[in-house]
């Protein structure tokens, strides 16, 4: 009887060990695939061709292009779907996403899930980037010479007001290699990849 009991205990332990191993393995797999599908995150500034300053997202949810190089509100966190040209832009300091409302005004929003907060990046022949809203197609992010947002319903892709350059603060190189971004996002940033220092 003792032998049978021992044998059963042994089997039970074996079974538990297998369960534990499987569970662990599955968790690893989930974590891995989560990491692979994670959004890419980059931080940079958007330099406006017309104002000569940088797009910034302020604490009162206003968006303008009056930020000096290196200004705290000009630091933007840009989320990109893997290999996509659709981006979400938020102010690193305030956490507000840059969105567009139906009257064509740029507004900061705490949640950026909607298409009104997604922009399609279009790299133009002159190497400037235009940002077309995903919800209001044909409407672009644009700023006047003074850095005030232009009513998006009056914007066109070829207008200087809608042209931007991605720039790191002076003295910083812009890392443009996607694989490196994936590597960095996977190793440095938190599980959701959303909290960039
Ligand atoms: C759009 O945003 C502007 C600026 O914040 C605001 O004045 C206006 O009322 C908004 N329009 C709508 C329809 O939400
Ligand atoms: C755009 O950038 C590319 C690559 O850096 C360069 O070869 C090209 O001359 C630039 N075009 C203009 C119009 O500046």
TrEMBL record:
* GO BP terms, alphabetized: negative regulation of endodermal cell fate specification
Q: So which domain of life are we looking at?
A: Eukaryota
Q: Which InterPro entries does this chain map to?
A: Fibroblast_GF_fam, IL1/FGF
What residue ranges carry the coiled-coil annotation?
Answer: none
Concerning PROSITE patterns, the annotation shows: HBGF_FGF (PS00247)
The terms describing its cellular component in GO are: extracellular region
**One GO MF term:** growth factor activity
Question: According to the UniProt entry, where is the signal peptide?
Answer: 1-19
Q: Which keywords accompany this UniProt record?
A: Growth factor, Secreted, Signal
The cellular location(s) given in this protein's UniProt record come to: Secreted
Q: What is its main location?
A: secreted
Family to which this protein belongs: Belongs to the heparin-binding growth factors family.
**PANTHER family from the UniProt entry:** FIBROBLAST GROWTH FACTOR
State what protein this is by name: Fibroblast growth factor
Write the lineage as a comma-separated list.
Answer: Eukaryota, Metazoa, Chordata, Craniata, Vertebrata
């Amino acid at each position: 009887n003792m032998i049978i009991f021992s044998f059963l205990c042994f089997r039970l332990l074996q079974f538990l060990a297998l369960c534990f191993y499987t569970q662990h393995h599955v968790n690893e797999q989930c974590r891995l695939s989560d990491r692979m599908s994670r959004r890419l995150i980059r931080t940079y500034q958007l330099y406006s061709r017309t104002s000569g300053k940088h797009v910034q997202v302020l604490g009162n949810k206003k968006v303008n292009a009056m930020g000096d190089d290196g200004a705290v509100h000009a630091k933007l966190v840009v989320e990109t779907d893997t290999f996509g040209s659709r981006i979400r832009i938020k102010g690193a300091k305030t956490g507000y996403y840059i969105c567009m409302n139906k009257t064509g005004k740029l507004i900061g929003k705490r949640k950026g899930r909607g298409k009104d907060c997604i922009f399609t990046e279009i790299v133009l022949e002159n190497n400037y980037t235009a940002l077309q809203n995903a919800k209001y197609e044909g409407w672009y992010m644009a700023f006047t010479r003074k850095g005030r947002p232009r009513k998006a319903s009056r914007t066109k892709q070829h207008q200087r007001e809608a042209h931007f350059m991605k720039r790191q603060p002076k003295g910083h190189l812009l890392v443009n290699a996607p694989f490196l971004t994936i590597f960095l996002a996977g190793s440095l940033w938190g599980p959701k990849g959303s909290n960039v220092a």
